């Protein structure tokens, strides 16, 4: 089975990726959905490799 990888580092990306994932699931597409993202992606059927909340960074390093 082929995989589709989703990567969303913030809430709006999670929302858009979840919409695409839900559509693929509803069509019984022959793909495994994996990714880095949030709860919306997980609820849409994406197997999360990592939750985006663990990757959040604020500020700049200098």
Quick structural overview:
With 62 residues, the protein is α/β, with parallel strands linked by helices. The chain is built from 2 helices and 3 strands.
Structure description:
Helix content is 34%, strand content 29%. The protein is of the alpha/beta class and 62 residues long. The chain is elongated, with a radius of gyration of 13 Å. The mean pLDDT is 93.
Reconstruct the topology from this structure.
Blueprint: E1 2-7, H1 11-26, E2 31-37, H2 39-43, E3 47-51
Terminus-to-terminus distance: 44 Å
Q: Output the radius of gyration.
A: 13 Å
General form: elongated
Q: What is the β-strand count?
A: 3
Average pLDDT number: 93
Major beta sheet summary: 3 strands, parallel
Proportion of helical residues: 25-40%
- SSE topology string: EHEHE
Structural class: alpha/beta
Assembly annotation: single chain
The unreliable regions are: none
Beta-strand residue percentage: 25-35%
In spatial order, strands of the major sheet run 1-2-3
Q: Tally the structural domains.
A: 1
Query: What is the count of DSSP helices, taking H or I runs of 4+ residues?
Result: 2
